[in-house]
Amino acid sequence: MTATKLGSTDRTTLKRSPDRAQLDRNEAYRLLDSQWVAHVGVVDGGQPYVVPMAYARDGDRIWLHGSKASRVMKLLADGAACCVTVTALDAIVVARSGYESSMNYRSVMILGKGHELAGEDVAHAIDAVIDGLIPTRSNEVRPSTAKELAATMFIEIPLDEMSMKVRTGPPDEPDEDHELPIWGGVLPVHLSFGEPIADEWADKKSVPLPASIEHLKNKGA
């Protein structure tokens, strides 16, 4: 399936608040590249399951990884239809009523079916997921063992059918609410990293902080 314009299929066209649709695929990719957690939804026997997973984007596809014993991974490997969402919370929208209170956010929804990776793609996917969490970290860790690889599954999902929705700005309120003596506005939300905490083994041996962690810590400061 050829990659389509964002939100252009029957399943991804925004019906509610269509003005919030983001149609630039590059914006969706920037969001995917900036986040860490994807929520992956599948249905098994009529029961929906949604699981948070680490992921990495590689071109027009994303890679998910998990245990081969995982229900969701088994379903994905068998070709189950899935829905993957990734969201960045940018602000709490503080309105003068509960009804108009909201959030500013950027969210991508991906629909499709995945398949299990094999061969050289697996090694590439491992490094991509590691570096998705901490850039360049794959250069600092030991290689995965055969036992670890045998217990892990990687699923590839194409980014063919996808939509992106964005909310920005202050509360959207009726004019009469503006006369109330109640504060309204936006409370920005920022992600930052704290001071790294060494485990007992790194502490005992006085292992220095790696460049990847140092860079991420300074970037988030």
**What's the architecture of the largest domain, going by CATH?**
Roll
Q: How much of the polypeptide forms β-strand, as a percent range?
A: 25-35%
Task: Give the CATH level 1 class of the largest domain.
Answer: Mainly Beta
> How many domain units?
2
- Rg over CA atoms, rounded to whole Å, is 21 Å
CATH topology call of the largest domain: Pnp Oxidase, Chain A
Secondary structure: helix percent: 10-25%
Structural class computed from helices and strand pairing: alpha+beta
**How widely separated are the two ends?**
42 Å
List SSEs in N-to-C order.
HEEEHEEEHHEEEHH
Oligomer state equals single chain
Provide the low-confidence segments as ranges: none
CATH superfamily of the largest domain: Electron Transport, Fmn-binding Protein, Chain A
Overall geometric form: globular
How many β strands by DSSP?
9
Work out the helix count. Answer: 6
Query: pLDDT average, as an integer?
Result: 93
Largest sheet: 9 strands, antiparallel
